[in-house]
Specification:
It is built from 7 helices and 9 strands, in the order βαβββαββαβαβααβα. It is α/β, with parallel strands linked by helices and 183 residues long. It starts with a strand and ends with a helix. The structure holds guanosine-5'-monophosphate. Guanosine-5'-monophosphate (5GP) is lined by residues 13, 36, 40, 71, 73, 75, 80-82, 99-101, 103-104.
């Protein structure tokens, strides 16, 4: 199987990874996106197979045991993981983006050292709370849990080959564009 260039994009919840990746893929139509599997419930408007493959915990565990994941991790009470089939699906693309959290990024670093690792950081820590509250998709308890995890993630940004500050989407995308074009 041909292996596309893999770009791991990690960053705390609320940093705007989704927006930045969407804008990046508009500039690079040949850049595929791995659709992750998760046990979290769909948010309003999320479509199975498009935003995530929504699995029951039992199905998720079965697929872990069957070796179907490249990486997987527990995050804020749910399981998330990258299916090998998603990389295969994107084999003919110029590259594929994995939008994953810190533990998953570490697993990919160990198993695919050739993958480029990019951390998206907020301009200030306060912007995360503002964005999570403003987006209105998570309960107050879920937001607090996500902000706790975010502290750990921010502390680990030094592990990443590239750190891109999402101060404005245009600027962050331009920087990502350079990283991807260089790869
Ligand atoms: P959300 O629930 O907001 O969609 O995602 C929560 C966190 O899980 C985010 O940091 C997101 O990047 C991460 N995530 C999404 N898909 C995967 C995956 O396949 N593997 C891992 N390790 N993390 C993921």
């Amino acid at each position: 199987m041909a292996r596309p260039a893999v770009f791991v994009i990690t960053g705390p919840s609320g940093v705007g990874k989704g927006t930045v990746i969407r804008a990046l893929r508009e500039k690079h139509p040949g850049l595929g996106l791995s659709v992750s599997a998760t046990t979290r419930a769909p948010r309003e408007g999320e479509v199975d197979g498009e935003h995530y493959h929504f699995l029951t915990p039992e199905e998720f565990d079965r697929r872990v045991a069957a070796g179907e994941f490249v990486e997987h991790a527990a995050y804020s009470g749910n399981q998330y993981g990258t299916l090998r089939s998603e990389l295969e699906k994107n084999a003919e693309q110029g590259g594929v983006v994995l939008e994953i959290e810190l533990q998953g990024a570490r697993q990919v670093r160990a198993s695919m050292p050739e993958a480029r690792q990019i951390f998206i950081a907020p301009p200030t820590p306060e912007t995360l709370r503002e964005r999570l509250v403003g987006r209105g998709t998570d309960s107050p308890e879920a937001i607090e849990r996500r902000l706790q995890v975010a502290e750990e993630e921010l502390a680990a940004q030094g592990e990443f080959e590239h750190v891109v500050v999402n101060d404005t989407v245009e600027r962050a995308v331009a920087e990502l564009d350079e990283i991807i074009s260089a790869a």
